[in-house]
Amino acid sequence: MPQVTVTVNGQTHTVEVEGRTLLVELLRETLRLTGTHVGCDTSQCGACVVHMNGESVKSCTLLAVQAQGAEVVTIEGLAAADGTLHPMQEAFREYHALQCGFCTPGMVMSAIDLVQKNPQGLSEHDIREGLDGNICRCTGYHNIVKAVAAAADVMHGKRTELAPAIG
Amino acid sequence: MYDFEYHKPTTIADAVKILAADPDAKPISGGMTLLPALKHRLNKPSALVDLGGIAELRGVKREGNAIVIGAMAKHYEVATDPLVKEAIPALARMASTVGDTQVRNRGTLGGSLANNDPAADYPAAALALGATFITSRRSIPADDFFVGMFTTALEPDELLVAVSFPIPEKAGYAKLRNPASRYSMAGVFVAKGPAGVKVGVNGAASCAFRQTEMEAALSANWSADALSGVTQSPDDLNSDIHGGAEYRAHLVIVMAKRALADAG
Lengths: 167, 264
Ligand SMILES: Cc1cc2nc3c(=O)[nH]c(=O)nc-3n(C[C@H](O)[C@H](O)[C@H](O)COP(=O)(O)OP(=O)(O)OC[C@H]3O[C@@H](n4cnc5c(N)ncnc54)[C@H](O)[C@@H]3O)c2cc1C
Ligand code: FES
Ligand code: FES
Prior knowledge:
The complex is a heterodimer of chains A (167) and B (264).
Chain A: E1 3-8, E2 11-16, H1 23-30, E3 49-52, E4 55-58, E5 71-73, H2 87-94, H3 104-117, H4 124-130, H5 142-155
Parallel strand pairs in A: 1-5
Antiparallel strand pairs in A: 1-2, 3-4, 3-5
Chain B: E1 5-7, H1 12-21, E2 25-28, H2 34-39, E3 47-50, E4 60-63, E5 66-70, H3 75-80, H4 82-87, H5 89-95, H6 101-106, H7 109-115, H8 122-129, E6 132-135, E7 139-141, H9 142-145, E8 146-148, E9 151-152, E10 160-166, E11 170-177, E12 184-193, E13 196-202, E14 209-210, H10 212-220, H11 245-263
One FE2/S2 (inorganic) cluster (FES) binds at residues 98-103, 136-139 of chain A.
C-alpha cells in the first residue's frame, strides 16, 4: 500500500493509504479531524474545502497520495492554541453566518483564501463570485457575505477589531 | 471508487512508458473531472499516472508570436499569468470563469483539453485562436484535435505536453452558464489573428465547433452588426432539460455578439 506523509495543522503524519483514498477520508477517518465535511458526490458543494500549500482545494476531489509532502490546514487548525478564534470564524459567529453549520467549515476555509488572495479589498460582488464553489442550503448567503467583508477588514489591517453586526 | 495503482513519474518519457505498457492505465492531472467520474465508477483504470511531478509540463512562455502554456498549468495560473494577461487577455478572462475557485486551483488546461467535454470552455478558445497542440510525439492543429464528444486525436499513451496559442489582434469570449453545474450552455470565443477571423463555439453541440458563417461575416466586417444576418441551425445542437436546440442556436448568436463586445 502507498505511504503518504502530510503535515496537517502543523503536525506531520506518515500513514498507509490505498491509491483511491481521498484526502478527506484521510483527514476524517484516519486523523479523526471531522470538522471537514462531505456534502456531495459531484465536487460541487465545497463542504470539504481545506488549504493545501496555502490554496483552497476540495479535499473530496484529491487523492491522499496527491497530498504527499504538502502542508494542509483544516478548520481545526485556524484558532490559536488558547482558543482565540480566527477573525473569519469570529465574523461568522458575530454576523450569524450559519444556521445548521454543515457548510461552514468549507465556507470559512474558502473565504480565508479569497481574502488572502485579494489584499486590494473585495466588493460584495467579488465575495459572492469568490464563494461560487461553496453551497449553503440554509442561510441564503446574505450574512455569510457580510461576515466575509467584516473579517476582510480585520485580516487586511483596516480595523483592529471586528465591526459589530448591530450597533 | 475502485482501487488502482498509483505512479508519480518525473519525466514525460517515464509517464509514456507506463501508459504504453498498460492499456488500462490513465493519466491524472488536476483530477477535477477524472476523480468525480471514478467516484461514480464510470471508469476503472488499473493505474493512475499522476502528471503532477513532471516539471516539463509546467510553465508559460512566449515563443515568437505565440504564448505556449504547459499542459499542467492550472486554470488559476492561466487566469493570473502576466504573459497571458498581456498577450491574450480574453484567454485569461475565460480561464477565470471555469468552474469555481477550488476547481481553478486544481484543474488544468491540459486536462480540460484532453477531456474535451462538450461544455468545457477551452476547446472553443483553442479553435478560435488556431492553437497547436504539442504532444509527447507530434504537433496537432486545433482543427484536427477535437474528434467528438469526450474524444480527441490523442492516443492512450500520448500526453498533451503544451498548447501554443498564436497571439491575436483581438479576441473575446462570452458564455451563458448553467446556474447549477456552472458549465457553459453555449459559449462563443471570437478571435482575429494571424490566420484570419475564427469563431469557436462550446456547450451547444456534442463537440466544440467553428462557426464558419460567422467567420465569413466578421472577416468582412468585425462588428456585432455583421452578425445580424448570420444564422445558426439548430440541427445537431444539444437538447436537454436545460434547454432545447432552438434555444441553444439562439444563444450562439447572442453569445457571439457579447464576445465581440468583450473583444472591443
Ligand atoms: C464543480 C465543477 C465545475 C466545473 N466547471 C467547469 C466549467 O465551467 N468549464 C470547464 O471548462 N470545466 C469545468 N470543470 C472541469 C474542470 O475544468 C476540469 O479541471 C477539467 O475538465 C479537467 O482538468 P483536470 O486537470 O482536472 O483533468 P483530470 O480530471 O485529471 O483529467 C481529465 C482527463 O484528461 C486526461 N488527461 C489529463 N491530463 C492529460 C494530459 N496532459 N495528456 C493527456 N491526457 C490527459 C485524463 O486521463 C482524464 O481522462 C468543472 C469541474 C467541476 C468539478
Ligand atoms: S464534498 Fe467536496 S465538493 Fe462536495
Ligand atoms: S448553514 Fe446549513 S448549509 Fe450552510
